[in-house]
Amino acid sequence: MVLCVMNVSEGRDLSVIAALGAAAGAALLDVHTDPHHHRSVLTIAGEEAARAVATTAVALIDLRHHHGVHPRLGVVDVVPFVALTPSDTAEATRARHEFAAWFARTEQIPCFLYGPERSLPEVRRGAFETIAPEFGPGHPHPRAGATAVGVRGPLVAYNVWINRDVATATAVAKMIRGPGIRALGLAVGTGVQVSMNLIDPSAIGPAEAYDLVVERAAQAGAIVVGAELVGLLPRSVLMSVPTARWAELDLSEERTIEARSATRPG
User: Fold this and answer.
1) pTM
2) Residue 141 to residue 239: CA distance in whole angstroms
3) Which parts of 44-119 fold into alpha helices (H)?
4) In this predicted structure, what is the pLDDT of residue 126?
5) Which domains does the chain have, with CATH numbers?
6) Would you name the residues annotated as active-site residues?
7) Do 161 and 184 contact (CB within 8 A), yes or no?
8) Whole-number pLDDT of residue 266
9) With a cut of 70, which residues of the chain have pLDDT below it?
């Protein structure tokens, strides 16, 4: 199974989000929506469903009217194909290449590749300036911007809320950022969060990341007030966390990739 975790720049219009889910059909494993980030993360099994969601997003969303706290390149912002095991890497890489070529050809949207060549943060920093798109025109689409299409291993997107200002969250994010954690401090509604991608969750998972934020926030005179798993996580990562901490960390068996895949029709 090829797994795609598509990040789309829409988190407020429920009719559009419903249409994106409907386009994925039975291949949809999960939708996580955040109105402050103005973003939805759809976990999709299969390449055809991912293409249907991308086409629907371009038809329904106009980036010119988009305002949200999360960085973005385009309407279909990030399209990673996930190698759940090392043996899946070749298949995920093929899916990445074919999706990027198809999307650029059919929608005239520039597509940047990330993975072994470069990281997603490098694409965000250098797009159209120091990095040219591998597919599509050399300028953003007027309504849909550009898309980063990647290949990666399992990643856990995870947010931890603290009770101070965004400057404190940004300072905490800087302190914990490293090879296994990408982190930003964001103002989200009336609160602030340390928003993280745990890029090697077998080494640094939700529990370790949460505890790091607790420790560094305390040094800054702040306390943690909540946690949020974004999307799904591998069951192996969940099993590395003591069951007694699952509720505190916003984790559950039902929110694993394996559990959702097992209940998918067909």
Assistant:
1) 0.90
2) 43
3) 47-60, 89-107
4) 96
5) 3-152 (3.30.990.10), 156-262 (3.30.70.670)
6) 70
7) no
8) 59
9) 265-266
